[in-house]
Amino acid sequence: MQVVFDCADPATLAEFWAAALPGYAVQPPPPGFDSWPDFLRARGVPQEQWNSASALVGDGPRIFFQQVPEPKSGKNRLHLDLHAGGGPSVPYDEQVRRVQAEVARLIALGATFVEQREGLGIAWAVLTDPEGNEFCA
Asked: pTM value?
């Protein structure tokens, strides 16, 4: 199973999410190749197609980024939630502190802050990645 993002720049978005998600990294090239360009060149893929896809591997499902021609046009129907606050078992003030720290880290990586939220005794924030995909922290 994998989660798929449609995007304009798979390499850039993969680098952002690799830094944003603990336990994830850009998928290494297949055995026998030092880099993805070496692999793609060996397979005869034209250089203008080298940034048509990228992927992350890590502690959860594989995350795949595929280039599409059209821009993002509306709110995501599915989003990642980084669960930065820790949930209802964590004291509310500590949740807020954790979320604020994570928001600062993610902004430094290229995310955009949208808003702070709370509900049912849980604190979280809404952000967007460099291509405008919404996610929560």
From this structure: 0.93
